[in-house]
Amino acid sequence: MKKSVLIKLTFSIIILSAIISSCKKEEDNTPPTISFELISGTNNDGDTISIGDALHFRISTNAGDANITNFTVKKVTENETKTVLDSGLNSIGFVVDETYYQGVEDTVDWTFSIMDRNRMQSSIKMKIYKDPNSQFGGIIEFPEIKLSYQLNTEIGHFFLPLSNKIYLEDSASLFQEEVDILVYFNYKEDNGELKPSPTLSSPGEDVNFKGDLYNEYYPFLKNWDIRNYTKYDIRAENGVTADKYDSAHNDSLIIVSYGDVWAKKKYKWVCDGTIIPFQTTSGKKGLINVLHADTIETGCITFSIKMQQ
Question: What does the pLDDT read at residue 236?
Answer without folding.
Answer: 87
